[in-house]
Amino acid sequence: ISFIWRNTFAKIGEDWVFLALLGIIVAMFSYIMDYGIVMCNNARVWMYRDLTTHPFLQYLAWICLPVFLVLFSAGFVHILAPQAIGSGIPEMKTILRGVVLKEYLTFRTGVAKVVALTAALGSGMPLGKEGPLVHIASIVATLMSKMVTSFKGIYENESRNSEMLAAACAVGVSCNFGAPIGGVLFSIEVTSVYFAIRNYWRGFFSAVFGALMFRLMAYWFSNEDTLTAIFGTEYHVDFPYDPQELFIYALVGAFGGLSGAAFILFHRRYVLFMRKNKRISSFLQKNRFIYPGLMSLFITTLYFPLGLGQFLASTLSTRTQILHLFSNFTWVSDDLTVEQAEIVSHWVTESCSIFVNLSLYMLVTFFTTIWASTLPVPSGTVIPIFKMGAAFGRMIGEAMHLWFPEGVRIGGALSPILPGGYAIVGAAAFSAGLTHSISICVVISEMTGQIRHIIPVMIAVLVANAISTLLQPSLYDSIIMIKK
Amino acid sequence: ISFIWRNTFAKIGEDWVFLALLGIIVAMFSYIMDYGIVMCNNARVWMYRDLTTHPFLQYLAWICLPVFLVLFSAGFVHILAPQAIGSGIPEMKTILRGVVLKEYLTFRTGVAKVVALTAALGSGMPLGKEGPLVHIASIVATLMSKMVTSFKGIYENESRNSEMLAAACAVGVSCNFGAPIGGVLFSIEVTSVYFAIRNYWRGFFSAVFGALMFRLMAYWFSNEDTLTAIFGTEYHVDFPYDPQELFIYALVGAFGGLSGAAFILFHRRYVLFMRKNKRISSFLQKNRFIYPGLMSLFITTLYFPLGLGQFLASTLSTRTQILHLFSNFTWVSDDLTVEQAEIVSHWVTESCSIFVNLSLYMLVTFFTTIWASTLPVPSGTVIPIFKMGAAFGRMIGEAMHLWFPEGVRIGGALSPILPGGYAIVGAAAFSAGLTHSISICVVISEMTGQIRHIIPVMIAVLVANAISTLLQPSLYDSIIMIKK
After folding, report:
1. Residue A284: is its pLDDT beyond 60?
2. Residues B273, B182 share a domain
3. Based on the domain organization, do B87 and B147 belong to the same domain?
4. Is the domain of A133 the same as that of A89?
5. Are residues B275 and B218 in the same domain?
C-alpha cells in the first residue's frame, strides 16, 4: 500500500488525502456504531413490550439483554485490550502532552473499543460515545500513518504525528456530535494547553469530510437528515428571548456549574472509595464479572418501565429523549395537538406532573451515570449529563411559563417563554460544567441547527464554567488525577 | 479611580469586571459609530435625491459630502495621530508578537481613529470597520488597564497585558460583526501564532458582554434586532442543499481563493508602485490632500447613480446591499411579490440583466476597494470583499436556478436551488480568501443567524483558504510586509 500511496496521493499532497480519508473512515465507524446501538435499543424495548404481558416475565425480558451486553462488552475488552476501557479524552490529553501510553493506539485496542462500545451503549446504560470516538479516531489515524510510512521508516517526524492526533481528536468529536466546527474547538479545548494556529485547518479539513460522509450515509441508508442537525429544532420567533430572561439563564448556568462540579466530585469520591476499600477491590479483581453484572442489573432495574422507569421515559432512546426535551412547544399548555400530547405522555404519569418526573429523571440520571461510568467498558459521560441539563432547562422553562403565562413584556410586545430554549441552555450549561469547555456553545448550535439562542447559551456556559472551575478540575483532569 | 477600584471590584475579581466593562464600552463605540455612519450615508443619498433634479447639480450634491468627509478624515488623522491610518489588525499582530509600536495605543490615536473612521465610512467609500474596531478595542483596553494600575506601578505584569490585548482584539471583531463566538475565533486566527487555551475564556467573556450590550442598545434606541443576526436570513427548507451542489460550492470557494489572492497581489503591487515612483510619492508627500481628494472624487464619481452607479445599487447602504444579496427568493423567478420586485429593481437596469449588473458590481468593488484602502484614513477591507463574494454567490445561484429551474433531484424529491445560500457561501469564501481564516464560517453563521449551510460554507472556505494560501500571504501579512 505504501508504494502505491507514494506514487499517487503523496504527490498531490499526502496531508490532504490523509486527512480526508481519516474523516471519512471515522464517520463510517460512527455511523455503523450508531446503527448497531439503535438496533440493540430497539430489540430491548421490543422484548419488553411485545414478547409477553406478564409483569415478571416482562422484567426478565427487560433486564436480560442489557446485562448480557454489558457482560459481553466487559469480557471482550478484558480479553482483547483493557486499554479500551473508559473514555479516551483524558488519555489523549496525556499523549498530546508527550507521554507515551503503551498499547494505547493499536489495532487490537481499536477493535476492542469499537465492538465493546457498541455493546455497552446498546445496553441502554446512561453513557455517551464522544470520548471513545476520540480514542477510535486517534487509533485510525495512527494505523493509517503507520501504513503510509511503514516503508519509509516509522515515525519520520514526531511533531507531524502529534498534529495528526490532534486532527483525529477533532474528527472524533465532530463525528459524534455531528458538529464539524464545534467538534474541532471542543477537542482543542479539552486536549490541548497551547495550540498552534498553523494546525487549525487540519482539524477542520478532516472534520468537514467526516461530517459530509456522515450526512451522505444518512442520505443513502436511512433518509434521515442527520448532519444538518442531529437534534434539529426550529423556533421561529423574532425575539427568541427577552433581556430580563437572561438572569434566569445565568441561574441555569450557575446550577449547571454546580452540578457539573458535584458530578466530578462524587465520581472521584466513588472511584477512590471503591479502590481504597481493599476487601471489595480485591474481591472484584478476582471476580471480574460480578461488578459489571450486578451494576448493570441494578441500573437496568431502576429504569424498568413498570417500576421507577415510568417516571424516566425509559422506553425512549437517548436521541428521542433529547428531541422531546428540546421540542418547540409548552408542555404545560392546555391545548396540545395529538403529536404534542403523545410527546408529553412520556413525561407525565397518572399520579405526577412533569415537574416530579423531570426531577426524578435528573436525579436518577445523575447517579446512574456515575455508576455506569465506573463499569469496565468503553464509555463517555457527556451525553447523559447533556440529557440531564436538557431536563433541568425544560423544567425551568415550563415553570417560567407557569409564572408568566402571557410571556415577558418587552417594549410594547409580549414575548412568550420558549421552554425549548431553556432546555438547550440547560443542556449546554451542564455539559460545560462537566467538561470546562466554552466551545460547547458552538457544538450545541450545530447540533440543534439553530444559532438564535447563542447569547443565552454563552452566558450560561460562561457562568457554568466559572463556577465549576472554581470548585473542581474538569472531569478529564479529574480522571487523569485518579489514574495517576 | 484606582483607589475606588481597588476597594470594590478588585476584591470580587478584577479580571471579570474589567473584561465585562471592556466589552460594554467597545460595543457602545461600535454602536455610536454605526449610527454616525448611517446618518452620513442617509444625508448623502438625500442630498442627491431630494435637493435638486438637474443632473449636473445632482452630481455635485452626490460628490460634495463624500469628498469633504474623506478630506476631513484624512486631515484629522494627519494632525492628531497618523498611527490611526489603516486597518489595525496587522499592527496588533505585530504587537502581540512582542514588538513595541510607539504611540500606537494612546488616547490621542483612539480619538483620531474613532472620529476619522466614522467620517471615512460615512463617505460611502467601499471600506469596512473590522480592523479599526480591533485597534479601538485594544486602545480602550490599554487605557482602562492604565487607569486601574496607574497607582500600583504601570505594567505590573507584562504577560497579563498581552492577555488583555488578545481579549480586546476578540471584542473588536465581535462587536463589528455582531458575532461573539466567530469574532473570538477570527481574532485568534488573524493575530496569534500560538494560542494558550487558558486565555480562551477571556475573549468569550468580554465578547459576550459586548454582544449583549450591542443587542440591548439596538432594543433601546432603534427597535432593531441587530444582535441575533445582523444580516438575518430565514431559509426554511428541509434540504438546504444537495450533495451534488457541493461541487459548485467548492468552485465558488476556488474562485473566492483566487480573487482573494488577486486582491492581495494587486493591492501590494499598487502600494509598492506608488511608493517606488519617486516623483509621485514626493509630490503627494508635500500635498497631502491631493491624493485623498482626487481618489475619493474618482470613486464617488464611479458610483454616481445616474452614471455607472445605476449598475451598482449605489443608493443602497452596504447593509441593505448585503441583505438584498442574501434574500431568500430567486431573483430571476417570474412571479415576484411587490417587495421582492422592489429589491430586484435595484439590481437590474433597463438595458441589462442582473448578471451584467452583478458582474460590474464585483469588478468595480474589487478595484475601488483597493484604491480606497490606500487612502490615508482608518479603514478595513473585509466587508467590501464580503459584499463582492455575496454578489458572486448570488450570480452563481441565479445561474444555477436558470440551468436547473426545477431544482436538483435528490432521492425521490426535487430540492430547489436556493440562490441566497450561494450568496452566503460566496461571501464566506471571498472573505476567507482575503484573510486566510477558517473561522469566517462561524462568523457568517452568527451574522446570518443560521447554521444550516455550514457544510457548504466550510467546504468553500477550506478550498478558498487552500488556494489563497498557496498563492499569496494573507492580506494582513502582506500589509506587514509592505510596512517593513
Report:
1. yes
2. no
3. yes
4. yes
5. no
Q: Compare CB distances from B451 to A188, A445, A465 and report the shortest one's residue.
A: A445
Q: What is the mean pLDDT of chain A?
A: 81
| Residues in chain B with pLDDT values less than 50 | 151, 153-155, 225-228
CA-nearest residue to A182 within chain B is B442
What's the average model confidence in pLDDT over A178-205? 81
Residues of A in contact with B167 (CB under 8 A): none
Minimum CA–CA partner of B463 in chain A: A205
Buried b (16+ CB within 10 A) or exposed e, B346-361: bbbeeeeebeebbebb
- Max avg pLDDT among A7-11, A145-149, A312-316, B434-438: B434-438
Q: What cell numbers appear for B237 in the block?
A: 427548507
Q: Do A194 and B197 touch (CB under 8 A)?
A: yes
Q: A455–B197: do the CB atoms touch at under 8 Å?
A: no
The C-alpha torsion from B166 through B169 and B170 to B173, rounded to 10°, is: -170
Q: Are A33 and A118 in contact (CB under 8 A)?
A: yes
Question: Shortest CB distance from A449 goes to which of B181, B438, B451?
Answer: B451
Minimum-distance CB partner of B195 among A195, A236, A462: A195
pLDDT of residue A227 exceeding 60, the answer is: no
Q: pLDDT tens for residues A245-269?
A: 788 889 999 999 999 999 999 999 9
Q: Domain boundary residue among A187, A222, A257?
A: A222
Identify whether the C-beta of residue B459 lies closer than 8 Å to the C-beta of residue B253: yes
For residue B238, the chain A residue with the least C-alpha distance is A225
Same domain? For B52 and B192 the reply is: yes
Domain holding A128: CATH number?
Answer: 1.10.3080.10
B361 and B255 in one domain?
A: yes
Residues B204-226 pLDDT 10s: 888 888 888 877 777 676 655 43
Q: How far apart are CA B215 and CA B228, in angstroms?
A: 8
Query: A-chain residues within 8 Å CB-CB of B229?
Result: 451-452
- The pLDDT value recorded for residue A429 is 93
Same domain, B216 and B257: no
Q: Say whether B442 and A216 touch across the interface (CB within 8 A).
A: no
What ipTM does the predicted assembly reach? 0.80
Q: Are residues A218 and A253 in the same domain?
A: no
Instruction: Determine whether the interchain pair A243/B454 forms a contact, defined as Cβ–Cβ distance below 8 Å.
Output: no
A448, pLDDT greater than 70 = yes
Q: Enumerate the residues of chain A whose CB falls inside 8 A of the CB of residue B239.
A: 225
Look at A299 and A163; give whichever has higher pLDDT.
A299
Q: Which of B173, B207, B222 is the last residue of a domain?
A: B222
pLDDT at A475: 87
Give chain A's domain count. 2
Q: Is residue A460 part of a domain?
A: yes
Instruction: Confirm if A108 and A400 have CB atoms less than 8 A apart.
Output: no
Chain A residues closer than 8 Å to B194 by CB:
194-197
Residues in a beta bridge with B196: A194
- Domain of residue A440 covers 245-483
| Cβ–Cβ below 8 Å for A228 and B452 | yes
Cβ distance B194 to A189 less than 8 Å, yes or no, reads: no
Indicate the SS3 state at residue A195: strand
- Considering only CB atoms, B462 lies closest to which of A204, A216, A219, namely A204
Q: Is the dihedral of CA B413, B417, B420, B422 positive or negative?
A: positive
Is A229 a domain residue? no
- Chain A residues with CB under 8 Å of B410 CB are 219
pLDDT at position B136 is: 92
Q: Please check whether residue B145 lies inside any domain of the structure.
A: yes
Residues of A in contact with B227 (CB under 8 A): 455
AA letter at B441: C
The residues, any chain, with a CB within 8 Å of residue B451's CB and separated by 6 or more, are A229, A445, A446, A449, A450, A451, B445
The 3-state DSSP class for residue B244 equals coil
- Which residues of chain B are within 8 Å of residue A195 when distances are taken between CB atoms? 194-197
**Residue A206 within any structural domain of the chain:** yes
CB pairs under 8 A between A and B: 124
* C-alpha cell read off for B256: 473566492
